[in-house]
Amino acid sequence: MAQVSTYDEVIHFDTARFPFDSIILAAVRSSVKPLHTLTDLSEMHTLIAEGDRRAVETAIYDAFVQPEFERVYDALCREIIDERYSGRARYQAIPSVRIQLPGTKSVNFHTDEWYGHGHEVNNFWLPLVAVERSQSMMVVDEATSARLMEQMKQRRISILDMNDLCLPHSRSLAMEFGDIYVFNAHMLHGTVVNDTDRTRVSFDFRMLVGEDDRGAKDPSYFIAPNSRRRGVDGKPRATAGIYCSGNLATDLTLSQKYQQLICLRYASERGLDAQVLETELWGFDHYPNLWDMVSGSYAGRFQHLILFSTKLLPSSTDERERLVAEAKRRGLTLHFVAEDIASGPGEALRTDGLERNFNGPGRIDGSR
Q1: What does each C-alpha distance from 5 to 9, 10, 85, 89, 121 come to in angstroms?
Q2: CATH number, domain 9-223
Q3: Helix (H, G, I), strand (E, B) or coil at 65
């Protein structure tokens, strides 16, 4: 793999060692019925319509959390970190997939910083097919990006005007599978309508170097090399308990069923084996099931406690602090799915800033 000394460059990897294209092709063939006979990802549009794109994306995200993909992806990221950052970086635990069929565009011009990434986070864009012209990604160099963003803010322009402003200053990337484009989170990039006869399938991931600012992303977004937990059979070994409520506050109304489904998806994406699903008892104001998961009959059964929201914590500041302290004392990592917060045993979690809308699981009082 070639080392990169600056941003806005392309690095290369061995496609035989890192066969992402064949892994993803097999995943969509097995999961999306119209694609059972697909032999080339760039021909996907001949078998599906734009309305089927979400099903394909779901199949690919499911593949991203399987051991076959994770082993190859982790190995690539580990190699990049060793060569480029002397081992001092973390990488996005689950990459992001992009599919652009002919006649469509995938994203407007933007910077990743606008979506909560730190200013110096490094982006890696990996096409799974050959890309060029309107089928590829358009990028604006770093200096021009800074100048255009200043104009956008001063003029308070719309998204459509942002696209029009960026396009004349952008260039399309001509790349093959085996290439990765590396750029900064504060560089403008986007797409135009794909007027070719080829589908573009790509994924992208980010790396955080040393103590650089991770932006608004929670600590679980990035992982260190060799830190993903698996058992000897390749399956995730870190276990989790899921805690939901049958009566959420009116500004976050969601049934128990869908709370659990969302929490299960969250666990799957993070390689966690959810072994316990509990819902708080109605008519009590002391959170018996939550305490049971932390220090009662479930204590020691799992290393991660996933709560659908911070709104499910006790309304009393003292009890909230006591519960969090006990969870951390017992080595639990706490996850709050709706707020995208994760806090490990050795990490501080300020409980006085967490929103509360309950005076117990069965009643709402609007307090915070």
Answers
A1: 9, 11, 10, 16, 15
A2: 2.60.120.620
A3: coil
SS3 100: strand
Considering Cα of 323, then 328, then 332, then 335, what sign does the dihedral take?
Answer: positive
Bridge partners (DSSP) of residue 87 are: none
Can you tell me the distance from the alpha carbon of 90 to that of 360, in angstroms, rounded to the nearest whole number? 39
State how far the Cα of 56 lies from the Cα of 32, in Å rounded to an integer. Answer: 6
Greatest alpha-carbon pair distance for the chain in Å reads: 63
Q: Are strands 333-336 and 304-307 parallel, antiparallel or unpaired?
A: parallel
Q: What's the whole-number average pLDDT of the chain?
A: 86
What is the location of CATH 2.60.120.620 in the chain?
9-223
8 Å CB contact between 131 and 200: yes
Q: Tell me where in the chain the CATH 3.40.50.1390 domain(s) lie.
A: 239-353
Q: Which residue has the tokens 């929103």?
A: 355
151: Cβ contacts below 8 Å, ≥ 6 apart: 157, 165
pLDDT level of residue 358 (50, 70, 90 thresholds)? very low
Q: What is the pLDDT of residues 186-227, one digit of tens each?
A: 999 999 999 999 999 999 999 999 888 888 777 778 899 988
- The model's pLDDT over 241-277, given as tens digits with 9 standing for 90+, comes to 999 886 654 355 677 778 888 998 898 888 888 888 8
Give 239-353's CATH code, choosing from 3.40.50.2000, 3.40.50.1390, 3.40.640.10, 2.60.40.1190: 3.40.50.1390
User: Has this prediction a pTM greater than 0.90?
Assistant: no
